[in-house]
Design brief:
Length: 430
């Protein structure tokens, strides 16, 4: 089985998994079906997926003000896309369980010593010592409790009316940098919204779009995911109740692999990352396995090709899928194919991210399929992990506030700017 931690004590793991099986579900399958229902509207051109959040969520991200700020940025991004494109936005966080990471190398070298790679807070500790990196199953339980606490606050905010448009000004508070308020298109949007509110063209308490914020994570640790896979006693069928949507990463999507085998048995919508090395025949087998009834709202293919390869590689995959009449929703991850190294830091350039989004929309349009969403690694903090964009960050400033544990994220201003780029690409008719 690929990408599973090398747990040192199998009995300890079994005990933890037995406890997890007794824990209440995090989400109700009725919510998951609502998400599937919303996904139906994507290929009808009515809905758009905004799946955003941390690359690797930390246990310390389970903190009220951080979650609040995350909502502030997500709601603003959703508002931009909604008012610029007229599409409803399906908001899905990479949050409330994004605690496990696949790694290319099992070991990394720190000061000349080989230590196990960091695999996410649910597996081991980020501190660069051998001891800290030994996988500990107690972290699975800790991850569950922190996911529950995170989701609880998200639900509290949404149910308490926080995503009503009248809170626009509050969403802007705290992290809203000087830079972003200079963005002409942001100023224009705010003016338009303020006047629409004053003239009662939009109701003061209108929600920015659908109420829900769904949660998602990579369904990587199969012991954990299986412990939360439960039968829906009301309507029947098995669901992974650890999140509304789980995705299979680019490293674990082999059609004969354990992750695909797991995904085919559950009623959740499934994301699958597809990189430039994706074999079309294997992808067809995977799609037929996970979605044997060819349902329109089941499979979300998340293209992560890199801006230099997307035109050619995405086009050929879309054509194969179309010629087999298979139903999928196409989403663009413009992050994971555009990473480079600089002085030991992993970096991404805003221009590459923007270019991949634009190409994604173009390729989809040329092939007559709907560009259904974006999948972004973002944080509400003012980090310096991606260069370019409105902040004008450069490589020389990378170390100023480089805080990610795995991949470089868009900071709040860059994330919001990306929402404008997405909206502009969707609105273009060339
Ligand atoms: C990720 O989404 O953080 C990730 C590891 O992506 P991928 O599987 O596409 O490499
Ligand atoms: Co990542």
């Amino acid at each position: 089985m690929k990408q599973q931690p090398d747990w040192p004590d199998g009995k300890h793991l079994e005990e933890v998994v037995a406890r997890l099986r007794q824990m209440p579900s995090l989400v109700f399958s009725g919510e998951t079906r609502k998400l599937r229902q919303a996904l139906t509207g994507v290929n009808e051109g009515n809905n758009f997926i905004l799946q955003v959040g941390n690359c690797a969520e930390s246990f310390s991200d389970c903190h009220g003000p951080k979650i609040h700020n995350f909502l502030r940025i997500v709601l603003q991004m959703a508002l931009v896309v909604k008012y610029k494109t007229g599409r409803q936005v399906i908001k899905i966080g990479r949050i409330g369980g994004q605690y496990a990471k696949p790694r290319s190398d099992d070991y990394e070298s720190i000061d000349g010593k080989e230590i196990p790679s960091y695999r996410g807070d649910m597996v081991n500790d980020w501190a660069p010592t051998y001891e800290a990196r030994i996988p500990n199953p107690d972290r699975l339980l800790e991850g569950y409790f922190r996911s529950a606490a995170t989701l609880n606050l998200i639900r509290a905010f949404t149910q308490g009316g926080y995503n009503e448009i009248r809170n626009l000004r509050d969403w802007r508070e705290h992290f809203f940098s000087r830079d972003i308020s200079r963005l002409p298109y942001y100023m224009k949007l705010e003016e338009d919204l303020t006047s629409a509110l004053e003239n009662k063209e939009i109701a003061f308490n209108a929600t920015s779009e659908r109420d829900e914020i769904f949660i998602s994570h990579e369904g990587l640790l199969l012991d954990y995911e299986e412990a939360f896979t439960r039968i829906d006693t009301t309507f029947g069928g098995y669901y992974d109740t650890s999140a509304h949507l789980v995705w299979i990463g680019n490293r674990t999507r082999q059609s004969n692999g354990a992750h695909v085998e797991f995904a085919r048995g559950i009623g959740n919508p499934i994301g699958v990352k597809v990189g430039p090395d994706c074999d079309p025949d294997d992808l067809l087998t995977l799609i037929k396995k996970i979605n044997p009834r060819n349902e329109a709202n089941k499979l979300v293919l998340i293209s992560r090709m890199g801006q230099d390869r997307i035109r050619k590689d995405l086009k050929s995959l879309i054509q194969v899928i179309k010629s087999n009449k298979l139903n999928v929703v196409w989403v663009c991850d413009p992050m994971h194919g555009n990473t480079f190294a600089h002085n030991g830091y992993k970096v991404r350039a805003f221009d590459d991210i923007a270019a991949e989004i634009r190409s994604f929309v173009k390729v989809c349009r040329n092939e007559n399929v709907i560009p259904g969403g974006v999948h972004l690694e973002i944080t509400a903090e003012n980090v310096t992990e991606c260069i370019g964009g409105i902040n004008g960050l450069t490589l020389s400033g990378i170390s100023d506030n480089y805080a990610t544990k795995v991949d470089p994220r868009l900071n709040a201003a860059q994330a919001l700017e990306t929402a404008f780029i997405v909206s502009e690409s969707l609105s273009r008719r060339d």
